[in-house]
Amino acid sequence: MINKYDSYIFDLDGTVYRGDDIIPGAEITINSLKESGKKIIFISNKTTGTINEYYTFLKSFGLNIEESEILNSTYVLKNYLKENYLHSTFYAIGEEIFIKEIAEAGLNYSEDPAKIELLLVTLDRTLNYKKLETAANALENGARFFAANIDDTCPVTGGEVLDAGSTISALEKRTHRKLELNFGKPSKFMMDEVMKRLSSDKSKTLLIGDRLETDIAMGNKFGIDTALVSTGVKHYSNGNSEIKPTYYLNSVADILKK
After folding, report:
1. Cα 204 to Cα 157: distance, rounded to the nearest angstrom
2. CB-CB contact of 113 with 132 (8 Å)
3. Disulfide check for 113: which of 88, 133, 137, 243 has CB 3.0–4.6 Å away?
4. DSSP 8-state assignment for residue 181
5. Residues 187-220: pLDDT tens digits?
6. 3-state secondary structure of 39
């Protein structure tokens, strides 16, 4: 693998770390790749922290990385909203840090369904019925329907928690509205930003992740080899059998062994 690829795209949650713990051997693998002159970028659909917080967290485990090598779906969504919906009014099913970052990008937050122009959905561990109904009412009033990510679950220490995909499904059934745009993996929005930073030949790039329907699907969609690791989410029989990785790995530590 080291001889075949010049660039590596790493998913974060479930691939490099899980919950508050680094995946065993992840720091050795990543530092070895960087020492070999490989280009690396980390991408995440998780929006419950800033890029700087993810950088500080990874550095605490000894990863020799730069903050500019980390990209999350909040960043991708913010850029799109600044270019196309500056000063628009939004509501988000998301946590406080996500709402703050979107507001700081120049949009106005409201919980009044009559005023909401954009509904944004992402991971929200404080989700409740009131939030769902505010979102549903906004959609029924004509708000645009966007997502920062579409993951059904998020891996945490000891298991998984419900993520944006499950919320989106509930809202689609409740309102008969379909999600319009997703800005996380496996979207073109995310891929364009990744390749802008890597400036690499796709045939010399490997994407490593734990999720078939986002990580591996993105690689397949854009012609990039992929490696599926078993350290993150469980893989249920969900009709996605056509999504196949190039490699199956136990963890990112196996990259140095292949």
Report:
1. 33
2. no
3. 137
4. E
5. 999 999 999 998 778 999 999 999 998 999 999 9
6. strand
